[in-house]
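Thread title: Can someone regenerate the structure for this chain?

I was given the following input by a collaborator and told the matching structure tokens would be attached. They weren't. Posting the sequence so someone can regenerate them.
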Amino acid sequence: MATTASDEPSVSAEEALKQQKKQARREAKLMLAIKAAKKDLKKAQKKQSKAQARLEERSTTLHTLEARLEELHAQSPQAATDVIAQNATDAVLTSPLSEESRLPEGSVVITDVAKMDALP
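Best answer:
Regenerated them for you:
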């Protein structure tokens, strides 16, 4: 059977329609991917913005605390040495018990805070 001129245009028209549909599907998929990528980008930018705000807040807090410490050091140089001496005393008081005086595991020790404050 020989192909006639009227059959060929319908075949090529069908082929063209198939190609257009394929192209439309590819474009739709890409548009969805672009939409998702934009959404992810916006989410990441928002997250970055929040992190930057937290960083700035913490940096400000750090500078404030450092300024207060410098202010305390400037007010009384003797007070700074007293604080260091007190910290050393606290370290001795909180040192682990020697082997002979260790309590059995699970024991609870109750101490009187008033007596601890009275220690030299």
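Residues 102 and 108 are 12 Å apart (CA to CA).
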